[in-house]
Structures are given as structure tokens and as C-alpha cells.
Amino acid sequence: MARHVAALSIAAFCAAACAPSAPGSDWGFTGPAAPAGTPQVRDAVDGLEVGHRLMAAGEYELALRAYFRSAATDGVNVDVLSAVGSANLRLGRLGQAEQMLRRALEADETFVPALNNLGVVLAEQGRWAEAAHYFRAAFAQDSGRSDDIRENLRRAIAKSAETGYPAPEESGFSLVRRGTGQYLLLSTP
Prior knowledge:
This protein has 189 residues and is mainly α. The chain has helices at residues 2-18, 47-56, 60-74, 78-90, 94-107, 112-124, 128-141, 147-161; strands spanning 173-177, 183-187. The protein has a domain at 47-161: Serine Threonine Protein Phosphatase 5, Tetratricopeptide repeat, CATH 1.25.40. Strands 1-2 form a two-stranded antiparallel ribbon. The model has no long low-confidence stretch (mean pLDDT 80).
């Protein structure tokens, strides 16, 4: 008897759960109907544009990922190589930045952002003469319109004109030899 009561309870529960709750509605759903036809496919946002916006917002790692997505969908070109190099520069990855920017210049030796940013990478490494060379090329290709490139060139020329040897420091000590293998530090007036 207990089995029959349990079976009837389960059957009643299933019938109540499966029955429509309102006339004309299936399964008790009263929301909007599902769309008919094929779904609309929207155009994807350009990965380079997304990366540039992220760079402007200071999100360099996310910008780098956006640039890689752009390379995967649109192919590797001078814009993508230069953008990846610039993102690596902002992240402090100077070796990777230099490599990408040089590859960008192999694709187009007149691309001003790659010329300027390679100059910045070289300046960060203290290679001022080589940086000045790339700033000059960027300045010439840009026809001198960019104040930033002009300032970069001015600083690189000034730094490369400095000698590589610092002025000798004046210390207050002199070394005097005393016997074999012994030295004595004396202060000088």
C-alpha cells in the first residue's frame, strides 16, 4: 500500500510540474518568444583600436593582448609590430620592444611611430648616438611636425655630445704604501 501511495504522489507531482500554468503557454513560461531566424553577427571591433585605447588608459598588458588578437585575425603588419613593440616598451621589456620595432622597420623603414619608439628604447638603454639616428629619421619622415619627436631628438643629441667619462671625483683620501703589502689611508687637506 505504501508503494502505491508513493507512486501516486510522484505521478501527481510530475503531472503538476509538466502541466501548463496558463492557457496557451507551454511549461509555464510567459516571457517573450525566442527570436526566429538566424542570429545577427556584429562586426568585431578592431583589435588595434582596442589596443590603442587600452594604451591610452595605461593598461599595457591588456593592450598587448589586444594587439596579439589583431595579429591573429588581421595578420602581422607594420602597425601591429610597432604597437606590440610600444606596449613592451611601456611594460619595461626593452629587449622585446627593440626586437619588435626593428621588425616593424624591416617591413616599412619610413614608419614614424616605429622610428621614434625605437629611438626611445635605445635612449632607455643609454645608447644615445644610435637613438639620435632614429630620432633624426623620424623627424625627417614627420617633416618636423611633432613636438615630441623634436624634443626627443634634441635630448638625444645633447646626451650623445656628452663625453662618456665622468669628471674625476675629489675624495679626501690618498693611498700611501707602507712596507711590503701594507697600505695606509691618509686624509688630505
